[in-house]
Design goal:
The complex is a heterodimer of chains A (178) and B (200). In chain A, 45% of the residues lie in helices and 19% in strands. Chain A is α/β, with parallel strands linked by helices. In chain A, helix 2 links the parallel strand 1 and strand 2. Chain B has a single domain, classed as Thiamin diphosphate (ThDP)-binding fold, Pyr/PP domains (Rossmann fold). Chain B has eight helices and eight strands; from the N terminus they run H-E-H-E-H-E-H-H-E-E-E-H-E-H-E-H. In chain B, strand 5 and strand 6 form a beta hairpin. The chains are: A alpha/beta (178), B alpha/beta (200). At the A-B interface, strand 1, strand 2, helix 3 and helix 4 of A face helix 3, helix 5 and helix 8 of B.
Chain lengths: 178, 200
């Protein structure tokens, strides 16, 4: 039987999917990340959503600018290592006052095994804020739904770029021995 | 390194004017620098999304727009340096295979905004070959007005994604500068496309 903690750990990707669905998100741009694997699968399975795998995260930033110009809402999914790839492209959103919802799964900050993840993980929030993105961080699974919902509203109602950082504590330890 | 081919004599302004003469209700995204100016010089239009920055993003902005508006043709007009910076987007677009997206690269082989340094396209890199290898079924290199005229029906109507690398002269064109305030460009474009919903 699952403990409450395990249940919470497995339902948050479904909760994000529900929030995106309710908000009318139809374009899901992503660079794969283990933390987002379940959500990516749900988006691919949904015929009303178009899930687009990218070669680099900045492609998704540009794509979602085009989506909004065309009247569609999108979301960009990535891990923290991809945030640095987005910086100049984010200028589109500040200059044109476009909405952007980014959901970033963190690496390199809590229980990390791979030291190469630490530099970008440590500067993710500051890099986004310096690029004009409003940043909210979640470090408990039970807060994911409310935070993503609030950030979705903030992004699309006020036409601004907003990022939710899903902290590594929510995602759990990566098993390097399997 | 492959041999550099003979420089094209095509006038970029004539090329872009020809590309847009039959635009109909198409939505147009322009890559920063000369392609933005060329598009404006061909006739300002509410449905032009002029990029003045975001280098490397024109084709992907076109993809997002094409997916959002599947019944409208989306035309991306960009430069060779801009396309090279977003070269991975050709792979992404080929995989997504949007039927209504066409990309025309106005290829002068140089970085015109920054002092005319040579781009990889002037050193043997073949954008059409890259597009084909990525999976574009329609990809052509164009180096004459006759070939351009023959290709235009593909640009406007063939099942996409459609790609062409159009070799033009490196001769600079007279400065023609469109609207550059991003929010103004956004509101104008979205209002023309979406009507009152644009401001909801």
């Amino acid at each position: 039987m699952q403990t409450d903690q395990q249940t919470r750990a497995t339902v948050w990707p479904d909760q994000i999917y529900d929030v995106l669905k309710d908000a009318g998100v139809t374009q899901v741009a992503y660079v794969p990340d283990a933390g987002h694997a379940k959500l990516i699968n749900r988006c691919h399975a949904d015929k009303s959503m178009r899930a687009v795998s990218l070669t680099t995260e900045e492609e998704g930033v540009a794509m979602l600018a085009g989506a909004w110009m065309g009247g569609a809402k999108g979301v960009l999914l990535m891990q923290s290592s991809g945030v640095g790839n987005c910086i100049n492209m984010l200028s589109l959103f500040e200059e044109c006052r476009l909405p952007l919802l980014m959901i970033v799964t963190m690496r390199g900050v809590w229980g990390e095994f791979n030291p190469w993840q630490v530099p970008m993980g440590g500067s993710t929030a500051a890099a986004l804020e310096n690029a004009g993105v409003i940043v909210h961080s979640v470090d408990r699974a039970e807060d994911v739904k409310e935070t993503v919902h609030a950030c979705t509203a903030l992004a699309f109602n006020t036409q601004r770029p907003v990022a939710v950082l899903i902290q590594q504590r929510v995602i759990g330890f990566k098993n390097w021995n399997k | 390194m492959k041999k550099t081919s003979k420089p094209s004599r095509l006038d970029r302004r004539k090329v872009v004017a020809a590309l847009l003469a039959g635009r109909g209700d198409a939505l147009v995204v322009t890559g920063l620098g000369s392609p933005t100016y060329d598009t404006y010089a061909a006739g300002d239009h509410d449905l032009n999304f002029y990029l003045w920055g975001a280098m490397g993003g024109a084709a992907m902005a076109g993809l997002g727009l094409a997916l959002a508006q599947p019944k409208r043709r989306v035309l991306v007009i960009t430069g060779d340096g801009e396309m090279l910076m977003g070269i991975g987007s050709l792979a992404t677009i080929a995989c997504e295979a949007p039927k209504n997206l066409s990309i025309a690269v106005i290829d002068n082989g140089h970085y015109g905004e920054t002092g005319m340094q040579r781009a990889h396209t002037a050193r043997g890199v073949d954008l059409t070959g890259i597009a084909k290898a990525a999976g574009f079924k329609s990809a052509a290199t164009i180096d004459s007005m006759v070939a351009l005229q023959r290709w235009l029906p593909e640009f406007h109507g063939k099942t996409g994604p459609v790609f062409a690398d159009i070799k033009v002269s490196a001769e600079p064109a007279p400065m023609r500068l469109p609207l550059r305030d991003g929010t103004a460009i956004k509101h104008r474009f979205r209002t023309a496309l979406l009507g009152s919903k644009a401001l909801e």
